[in-house]
Amino acid sequence: MPLEPKPADIPKISGALRLYRVSSIITGVFLLLLCVEVFLKFVLQLELEVNGPNGFLALVDRGTVTAFNLSTGILIVHGWLYVLYLFSDFQLWSLMRWSFPRFLLIALGGIIPTLSFFLEVRVDREVTAFLASREAAGTGTGTGTGAAAATEQARS
Question: What keywords does the record list, in alphabetical order (predicted)?
Fold first, then answer.
């Protein structure tokens, strides 16, 4: 039998869901940019250079970057965004009291291209339905329709 969130944690779930949704979309976009960068670098042997001698944004031969290397920048930014994604995954996972394999599946969303977009929709739907059912049963946060309204406002 799966565990249910603790009653004291229910008010925190909508904020954790909002952070997860934002971080999953941003991390997914940067993962796709990283895939493009890897294709450019290893297949076409090109890198992106910013504000160099070839103009503001230029494709140059691999290893000849003399200004800011946007390819490396995308890699670094995605890495740090993935840390935020893991944090938001962990926060939502622990509040919802899901199984550990579920945490690992959601964590894969920041590694497998486009998976974060599909998981974001699925997780959002499930958590929103849980919050709505708690609200309908009258066992929500004790603020009447506050949790449902906050969840609906977060979706907007």
Answer: Cell membrane, Membrane, Transmembrane, Transmembrane helix
Computed over every residue of the chain, the mean pLDDT equals 86
- Alpha carbon distance 49, 8 (integer Å): 50
Taking the C-alpha atoms of residue 57 and residue 36, their distance in angstroms, rounded to an integer, is 15
Question: Could you read off the pLDDT of 88-134 as tens digits, one per residue?
Answer: 999 999 999 999 999 999 999 989 999 999 999 999 999 999 999 88
pLDDT of residue 139: 56
Structure-token match 């709505």, residue found? 132
| Cut 0.85: pTM above it | no
Distance CA 97, CA 95 (A): 5
How are beta strands 68-69 and 55-61 bridged, if at all? unpaired
**Three-class secondary structure of residue 68 per DSSP:** strand
Q: At what angle do helices 115-136 and 70-96 cross, to 10 degrees?
A: 30
Domain boundaries, the chain: 13-155
Rounded CA-CA distance 142/31 in Å is: 40
